[in-house]
Design brief:
With 360 residues, the chain is an alpha+beta fold. It has one domain: 2-Layer Sandwich (Alpha-Beta Plaits), CATH 3.30.70. It is 34% helix and 26% strand. The strands form two sheets. Strands 2-4-3-10-7-9-8-5 form an eight-stranded antiparallel β-barrel, surrounded by four helices. The protein has a two-stranded antiparallel sheet with strand order 1-6. Strand 3 and strand 4 form a beta hairpin. Helix 2 packs across helix 3. The longest helix has 14 residues.
């Protein structure tokens, strides 16, 4: 069991911890000196607090492909129905697969909702038709292709800093410009996977792990950041954020209204992910809410503000099994690193999973 003695009695994090996590959402690789200066503490204190949060699985920084890189690949959502006795096994097996970004167990409409990313449509087809559909326990798989991401979870922020503190962090946040290609060199790929378990690994340690020189590693990392090919993201256990409930919405929006609707939805603090998709519904929305009752309130606000957005279906997430390359426990704490790798060989088998292990 993890030791949560440093959390508040009701399970929430202290304000100082939330502020540190908020800093790392804005500037995930900022130096401890910079973070300490913004927070008004020493660099050693900031580092010590972060080590405690990371060691207990309450917060972490990871690295994945950036949004500009993902746009050049094939991103899709799978709705999977399973035999009840096999649901946990299927969820964990898919969570361990390098082609999945997230895996959720859902209360209605489907058993699992899985975000998949592959090198191209052919690779997606082979993965879905030849592997996922043939997993023991899988009854049905429905696929929606993501056609545009209006807002991603990396933009979601804790509101734990003042405006002045946020502004002081901006110079430490890496600027980006659109990546030109979805292909990484073998050395780029190696560096990205080395950063997945800990996005704050120092360049010296990265160089040792990848077998490159310190100078080459620093130059490569800088290039990947500035091109938008790599993205660093600070994650916090959802139960500790004050927004413990995840819901999903599927809707339809007329083509001419998509831009205006997406801009209005993106301003709602509950919304974390907003994606245009193929299929009978063309918008998918993921939210974090303070309670299950908040789902009704949010839908009423959306309907009142955007009557052209027809909400077709909604669902409450029972458990997030994987989020952005990490398998989580029941409280959303990181448990096992499962890096995202859409460039893995197309015949890579889906890993096996033991349902007893899943229930630990």
């Amino acid at each position: 069991m993890h030791d949560f003695a440093d959390s508040l009695p009701d399970g929430r994090l202290e304000e100082a911890d939330l502020a540190l996590a908020n800093c790392l959402q804005i500037a995930p690789r900022a130096s401890w000196a910079t973070l300490g200066d913004v927070l008004g503490v020493s660099a050693a204190t900031a580092a010590r607090r972060w080590r405690r949060l990371a060691a207990t699985g309450q917060a972490w920084v990871t690295a994945t492909g950036g949004s500009s890189l993902w746009r050049s690949l094939c991103d899709a959502f799978l709705d999977i129905q399973c035999h009840p006795a096999q649901r946990g096994r299927v969820a964990l097996a898919l969570a361990r697969d390098p082609r999945t970004k997230s895996v959720m167990e859902v209360a209605s409409g489907r058993d699992l909702h899985v975000n998949v990313i592959t090198s191209d449509l052919h690779a997606l087809s082979r993965f879905v038709l030849d592997q996922v559909s043939r997993l023991p326990g899988v009854v049905r798989v429905d696929v929606q292709i993501s056609t545009h991401t209006y807002m991603s979870g990396s933009a979601w922020r804790l509101d734990a800093l003042s405006r002045t503190q946020r502004e002081r962090l901006q110079p430490a946040a890496a600027p980006s410009r659109p990546a030109r290609t979805g292909r990484l060199s073998p050395a780029d790929h190696t560096l990205l996977l080395a950063l997945a378990p800990d996005g704050r690994l120092p360049v010296t340690e990265l160089a040792e792990r990848t077998g490159a020189s310190h100078t080459a590693t620093r130059r490569r990392l800088s290039r990947l950041e500035q091109s938008g090919a790599i993205s660093f993201r600070c994650e916090i256990s959802q139960h500790l954020t004050g927004w413990p409930v995840t819901t999903l919405l599927w809707g339809r929006v007329p083509q001419g209204d998509r831009k205006r609707v997406s801009e209005r939805l993106a301003r709602m603090p509950e919304i974390r992910l907003l994606v245009a998709t193929s299929g009978g519904t063309n918008f998918r929305v993921s939210t974090w809410l303070r309670s299950t009752a908040g789902a009704h309130d949010l839908e009423e606000r959306i309907t009142a503000a955007l009557p052209e957005f027809e909400i077709v279906e909604h669902a409450v997430v029972l458990r997030t099994v994987k989020r952005l390359g990490w398998i989580l426990d029941d409280l959303g704490r990181r448990r096992e690193c499962a890096p995202i790798d859409p460039w893995c060989p197309k015949d890579t088998p889906i890993p096996s999973a033991d349902p007893d292990e899943y229930e630990e």
